[in-house]
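Hi,

Apologies if this is the wrong queue. I'm a grad student, and the batch job for WLM domain-containing protein from Piloderma croceum produced an output file that my downstream script rejects. I'm not sure whether the problem is my script or the file. Here is the sequence I used:
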Amino acid sequence: MSSPLISFTVTHRGTPYPLTLRPDSTLASLYVQLEGLTGVPPSLQKLLYKARLRNPGDDASIVEAGIKDGLKVQMLGSTPQEIGGLQAAENEQQRINRIMRERAMKVPVKVRSTVTSSSATLNYRFHSLEPLPHLPKPSSALELLTRISNDPAICHVMQKHKFSVGLLTELAPHENPELLGLNVNRGQAIKLRIRTDAYDGFRPYLWIRKVLCHELAHNEWGDHGENFKELDSRLNKEVAEFERAAREGTHDLGGREVYEPPEELEAEVYTHVLGGSGEPSISLNESREDRRQRVLEATMNRLRKEEEQLEQSCGTAGPSATETS
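Support response: The file is valid. Your script probably expects a header line. Output copied below for reference.
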């Protein structure tokens, strides 16, 4: 009598794929079926579930590998087309970096200064960006890492404090579920958790930037002592003040405002009552300057509360802070 078939579901990027296989089917045959369904080749597939074998080989049966009836498996992996797009984006980033280096070499050295603004920009920055290629949409992850590395407020504090980071990359939620950020060897690499737990998108940009400020402070201080807290608070305040100054009148040649203030900052001055109308409570006699000050103060209060959560989810002060990528 033949063994009963095993039915299970593999989910890739939110799409479930019901499968029914014989118990003696090999993992290699499963990978081939998944390639036909998702376009992801076996070499780029990663299946997440509680396995019976720690590292089952491709010739192991699905039963030996721990796949059983009714099991739900999550699959990670990118198609060759997506990998090609990531490589193209990386090549473009390298091209931009090369142009910046060439321009910096052409800048004449001033007699009264040994460091030009261009060389400072090249020194105090993120020297390399690297998303995790085995996770979904690596090109989108690279775009997010590029955006935050070029954030004017972040560039401002990095040059002001002379921060240099070798590599800016991401943390995989399933590999580091307890961590939001990690600074390896005081700036050798900074890793940020930019994705949602379900891999169906990315976390809010302002929250990712907040985590980044926290990890940048670890360039100077390894633990979460008072010196670290003071620097971390200063970085967040400088980011908020930089953006406030930008909102107050910095324009480009076309007369357009350079920076659009995030709605989250303006929302800090609103007071909502549970069960009430939800209308903002703002004094009509309040001046524009007073309101701006309230926005800044409310923002800093929120940042201080968030810092407590960050310290609980930061791996920099722990053993993993000295690991290499």
